[in-house]
Write a structure and sequence with these properties.
By secondary structure, the chain is of the alpha+beta class. 26% of the residues lie in helices and 25% in strands. The strands form four sheets. An eight-stranded antiparallel β-sheet has the order 10-9-15-14-13-12-5-11, with no helix packed on it. A three-stranded antiparallel β-sheet has the order 6-7-8. It has a two-stranded antiparallel ribbon with strand order 1-2. A hairpin with a 6-residue loop joins strand 1 and strand 2.
Length: 367
């Protein structure tokens, strides 16, 4: 256990101020992420066996949970064998237990949900959403139209439960994808790479609080790694760093290879919380797009990371905004952990995009 001290001291690796000996919270988490990323195939199998042996404790957020999430997030490990034991033990959390399942377990999950007296219905629905195949879509659609008695325990339609898997459906049963099925991370690195630039200061100021605006991301869609985004050039995403976490959302209208405009909706105050020093630190964050692709659930691990694409780790419930112009569901573009950009804010800034209308919505969820 780290010894508490009275005066702040810098972390020996990142220089963040803290009040205990040893590494800071963020550096400890980074080292844990690197540990899972560097596991050998033999070590992965040993860890899998340990998870299975202690599966009864997986919903307690302790070692078994962390090891499981580490394997899924950083190794994209198949959960099929683990899910079989989890089902036998009636463990349905974390929902990523059922990312990969055998045909037998899939059938038994459907047997549970089609039981009028199904227990743990909310978690089972989320597990099926993670599975997310066409059979899940059909069953969700039919159960929305012909609800069973357990439906009275739910507060929302099944189409919203589907969003835990990064998809949903409309009234005609059409599947709507809400995520990009590729993922890259933004990580501190001193190499030269301008494919994604984080936190560039702008010359204009927030009309609400007067803070200098920031292009929180400048994305070059022509970089080969980002071809999955379908963006045919560079786009800028301006926000007010002070208001971004103190408003309902920010609406950005972008143009390819040109500037963008922003509008803050329903802000909660007019004070500027970002100092000149804060803005300078934000602009020198050294975040670069990862050289290699990351697992789809990369942000669900033990570290606070920034991702483009992928299935996000929602701090609260999934929040897929409707485009203010066409009203269609927007797709998750990026999830930015504030701790990697400006450590005075807790939580995550989510960016969602409607490419048809050239609109991005930015909103904050609090840790």
């Amino acid at each position: 256990m780290s010894e508490k001290i009275k005066e702040s001291i810098p972390c020996p690796e990142c220089n963040r101020e803290k009040y205990f000996e040893g590494l800071c919270y963020w550096c400890k988490n980074r080292k844990l992420r690197e540990y899972y990323q560097n596991l050998s195939s033999t070590e992965i199998e040993i860890m899998k066996d340990k998870i299975i042996a202690t599966i009864d404790t997986i919903d307690e957020w302790e070692e078994t949970y962390k090891d499981f999430m580490g394997l899924v997030a950083y190794q994209d490990y198949s959960t099929q064998e683990i899910s079989t034991i989890a089902f036998q033990k009636r463990k349905f959390y974390p929902n990523l237990l059922y990312k990969n399942v055998s045909n037998d377990i899939e059938n038994r999950l459907f047997e549970l949900i089609e039981n009028p007296n199904c227990e743990n219905v909310s978690h089972i629905l989320r597990c099926l959403a993670i599975l997310g195949n066409d059979r899940v879509l059909e069953v969700f659609f039919q159960l929305d139209k012909n609800p069973l008695p357990w439906r009275k325990e739910l507060y929302v339609d099944l189409s919203l439960y589907a969003e835990f898997g990064g998809w949903t459906y409309d009234e005609k049963r059409n599947r709507l994808g809400l995520i990009f099925n590729e993922c890259y991370s933004l990580e501190k690195d001193d190499r030269i790479d301008d494919s994604v630039i984080v936190g560039s200061l702008r010359s204009d100021h927030c009309p609400n609080c007067g803070c200098t605006l920031v292009d929180i991301l400048t994305i070059d869609g022509l970089d080969h790694r980002l071809s999955f985004l379908g963006i045919s050039g560079k786009i800028k995403i301006p926000i007010c760093p002070s208001c971004a976490s103190m408003c309902e959302k920010t609406i950005i209208r972008y143009a390819i290879n040109s500037d963008s405009s922003m509008e803050i909706l329903n802000y909660f105050g007019e004070k500027n919380y970002a100092t000149k020093e804060d803005l300078e630190k934000m602009e020198t964050n050294q975040l670069k797009l990862s050289v290699i692709k990351r697992p789809l659930h990369y942000s669900s691990g033990n570290d606070e990371v920034c991702t483009l694409g992928g299935n996000p780790n929602w701090i609260q419930d999934p929040q897929y905004e409707n485009c203010p112009d066409c009203s269609k569901k927007m797709k998750l573009l990026a999830a930015l952990s504030w701790s990697q950009i400006w450590d005075k804010i807790d939580g995550t800034l989510y960016l969602e995009i409607c490419k048809e209308c050239s609109i991005i919505a930015a909103f904050h969820q609090q840790t």
